[in-house]
Write a structure and sequence with these properties.
Blueprint (H helix, E strand, L loop, with lengths): L3 E4 L5 H15 L12 H16 L4 E6 L5 E11 L4 E8 L8 H16 L4 E7 L3 H9 L3 E12 L2 E11 L6
Parallel strand pairs: 4-5
Antiparallel strand pairs: 1-2, 2-3, 3-4, 5-7, 6-7
Helix pairs in contact: 1-2
Length: 174
């Protein structure tokens, strides 16, 4: 599927809310923020946070859009480590767009953006060992599987082992 990514804008909360509420049954296990009872004010707060953080270069959140402008999910670069020039790369896709290559395309575009617009040399994708779909996305982006980190992620009050993948800035690029 042909998609684009763009930074969040203040008017994105209603579309984010719609995509998130559609996705609660599929996403809640991996994304605690996408929970039963998710409210529009949570979407508004998230969008406001993302707009400000992007402007301050603290993190870089993007809307994933279809060619028609429909919000298909989100991706972003966060947990920036400016000493070691690494960050986290995350992504999620609304339930009705899963299995169409959206997450893979978005992760690739976000990585390309990061390596073009920041000094980052390493992007890490961390997913639970049971989240096979997310692992497939990481693999399809060309990320290197580096191993399992025990009790790395805390979800719903329980620690989970996680698989660590990394995308590296291409050699010779600035």
């Amino acid at each position: 599927m042909s998609i684009t990514i763009r930074p969040y804008a203040l008017g994105d909360a209603p579309a984010l809310f719609e995509a998130a509420t559609e996705s609660i049954p599929d996403a809640f296990a991996w994304l605690p923020w996408c929970h039963p009872g998710y409210r529009i004010d949570e979407a508004e707060a998230w969008v406001e946070k993302q707009v400000g953080a992007f402007a301050r270069a603290e993190e870089f959140g993007f809307v994933i859009q279809s060619p028609s402008g429909r919000l298909l999910g989100g991706c972003g670069i966060n947990l920036l480590d400016r000493v070691h020039l690494r960050a986290n790369l995350g992504y999620w896709v609304r339930s009705s767009a899963v299995g169409q290559g959206v997450a893979t395309a978005a992760a690739g575009l976000a990585a390309q953006w990061a390596f073009t617009h920041t000094a980052l040399v390493r992007l890490e994708i961390i997913t639970t060992v049971t989240n096979i779909r997310s692992q497939r996305v990481a693999e399809k982006t060309g990320a290197l599987r580096e191993g399992v980190q025990h009790r790395r992620l805390l979800l719903h009050g329980t620690h989970h082992d996680a698989v660590l993948f990394a995308l590296l800035r291409p050699a010779g690029s600035a």
